[in-house]
Amino acid sequence: MGVKFLSYINKGEVLARKLRVFIENTPQHILLKGLDNLELFKDSEDYDKFLSILEELIINKSININAYVLMPAYFEFTVTPLDADSLPKFMQSLGRKYVGYYNKKYNRTGTLWEGRYKSSLIEDTVYLFEVMKYIESLPVYENVTSNAQDYKYSSIHKNLFNKKDSVVTYHQLYKKLGYTQQDRIEKYGEIFNKAIDQEIYHFIKNSLDKQHVTGSKQYIENIERLVGMTLSSKKRGRPKKETQTKDKKMYKNLTVLDKTKHSELKISPMTDLNFARNNTFLPVVANEAALVGGAFPIVFTADENPSMVALVSLGQDSLAINNEGKWITNYVPSVLRKYPFALAATKENPDQRVILIDEESAVFSKSKGKQLFKKSGEQSDTLKHAVDFLTSHETQMNVTKNVAKAIASSGILEDREISVGEGDEKQVLVNGFKVVDREKLNALSDDILADWVRKGIITLIDAHLKSLDNIQTLFTIANQRQN
User: Fold this and answer.
1) Buried (b) or exposed (e) across 73-88, using 16+ Cβ within 10 A?
2) Measured in whole angstroms, how far is the alpha carbon of residue 146 from the centre of its chain?
3) Whether 79 contacts 30, CB under 8 Å
4) Euclidean distance between CA atoms 23 and 21, whole angstroms
5) What is residue 454's three-state secondary structure?
6) I want to staple 452 with a disulfide (CB 3.0 to 4.6 A). Which of 190, 279, 333, 457 is the partner?
7) DSSP string across 173-225
8) What does the alpha-carbon distance between residue 112 and residue 94 come to, in Å, rounded to a whole number?
9) DSSP strand E in 208-333: where?
10) Is 376 helix (H, G, I), strand (E, B) or coil?
């Protein structure tokens, strides 16, 4: 089963809209309403024009429409997209073409639509025919007619009577209803003419309204496992502030490096970065912000003493580390390259540094690798190189923290989050970080901006703002992982 989820990011707002799920050869229930109950179809010419646009688009947009109804203020249909991009492109073209026709005819401007279209994935083997029946019965539910078969602008005439309709393509499950078209019509007629189950009716209606999956609990849970995200309702609740950016620690068992205790310890090259797989954020230093930001969003932490971090996850495992434990781009952040070493100040003398190691790291061994200490007890060249890198990294981190503090003190940082859905259906994927607000940045006094240009702070901010485009990259990588 090929599963993808599609999201749409407002650049600079760092907010994803409602999650779209795509599964190959699986139908979706679609609804698009007119703005403020605007009458979309005022006469037969309007209905016919809309249908002609549908006929034109289904040829080129990899779309199969299985059932539809055109109501005065909205249209609703089941559609089987043949690839992940076909439905969004189809809906965009459909909306644009009909708006152009409608506005010209009725001498108006602006959109016709009440926001984005609503969609609900359908568990076809259980609910496809129920959803088709629901759609083709809407004229009766809406009291437009007392008999659905009398309503002209509906797929019922093809599905139930085999009348010519270029818009409709029979779904594979419809074809399996019988070996002849007459057999299929009779079987579908049995389904359609059966008394309406009010529980199923309301389930279909609510699933579409909330944009949930129209399927069984087991089916939904299976998709959630594949997608790695919750697709059903959850009570909203704001995460506690202190846990918003909390990651699992990369270092499992830090201990002071001791030349006696660790005299025989050896280190091998780092080949596996899975020690950082559970981190949503990774610290970055100023001089690597542009390099890391070329692939991942660079943001600021929301704590009292902010730092710069790379956002590498949508709330699950790191998207920057592949299944083999490798970083997916050429440049690996320095915070990972310094592992399994660290520096720490002593309680007795805050200016004095001691070297720490993660004793649980797989790179350490007594049997293979390069020695950390010479037989004399002096540091080996390997350890000296590691200490030099640690010292350089700490210096750069202090510079970065001072820059982040200056940026935060100016008041130009704003809280942001990445979420899917809206209103009660909103689900926060990542929060607890901040980004620079462009308007507030531009409002700073000329002397501050000039000073920041000289110090390279503006260059750093530019790299940060440009990197926010890579939020969509995270969704793209997640899609690829699921496939």
Assistant:
1) ebbbbbbbbeebebbb
2) 44
3) yes
4) 7
5) helix
6) 457
7) HHHTT-SSHHHHHHHHHHHHHSPP-HHHHHHHHHHHHHT--BS-HHHHHHHHH
8) 12
9) 254-256, 266-267, 281-283, 298-301, 308-311
10) coil
